[in-house]
Write a structure and sequence with these properties.
Keywords: ATP synthesis, CF(1), Chloroplast, Hydrogen ion transport, Ion transport, Membrane, Plastid, Thylakoid, Transport. It comes from Volvox carteri (Green alga). It is a single chain. This protein is α+β, with helices and mostly antiparallel strands. The protein folds into 2 domains: 3-91, ATP Synthase, domain 1, CATH 2.60.15.10; 94-139, Helix Hairpins, CATH 1.10.287. Helices cover 28% and strands 43% of the residues. It has helices at residues 95-111, 115-137, and strands at 3-8, 13-19, 21-26, 29-33, 40-52, 63-76, 79-84, 87-89. β6 and β7 (79-84) form a beta hairpin. The termini are far apart.
């Protein structure tokens, strides 16, 4: 295996294992990490995180997907440490509920008025979109 990955949330260690590749939802876009990546600390946005191979999937070419609700990632010496505000595995998300929540959040965002309401609606939209994206990766929707 090439990367040792640890995902930590305030509640508990979420996942720890080895994988071949990870794609992170950073604040500047998606970032892929492979073996021997340059050291970096980056902020994580609310979005879908993908892990390929190793203990994450049991197969070298399969992907697992997770909804990450912001945080930070440290990449150093083939170790990826993720401090996430919240993390949810695609297997623990109901696809129909995720789709309904996404569509509802999208409508609420379009209807939002005022700064506070727009900020809250945007955050709810990003959370719902992340959850919906991870189940779409598994093609459950």
């Amino acid at each position: 295996m090439s990367l040792q990955i640890s995902i930590l949330t305030p509640e508990r260690p979420f996942w720890n294992g080895q994988a071949d590749e990870i794609i992170l939802p950073t604040e500047t876009g998606e970032m892929g990490v492979l073996k021997n990546h340059a050291p970096i600390i980056t902020g994580l946005d609310v979005g879908a995180m993908l892990i390929r191979g190793g203990q994450a999937t049991g197969s070298k070419d399969d992907w697992n997907s997770y909804a990450i609700m912001g945080g930070f990632a440290l990449v150093k010496q083939n170790q990826v440490t993720i401090l996430a505000n919240e993390a949810v595995s695609a297997e623990n998300i109901n696809p129909e509920e995720a789709k309904e929540a996404f569509e509802s959040a999208k409508v609420n965002l379009e209807k939002a008025e005022g700064v506070k309401e727009k900020v809250e609606a945007n955050f709810a939209y990003k959370r719902a979109k992340a959850r919906y994206q991870v189940v779409k990766v598994l093609k459950k929707v």
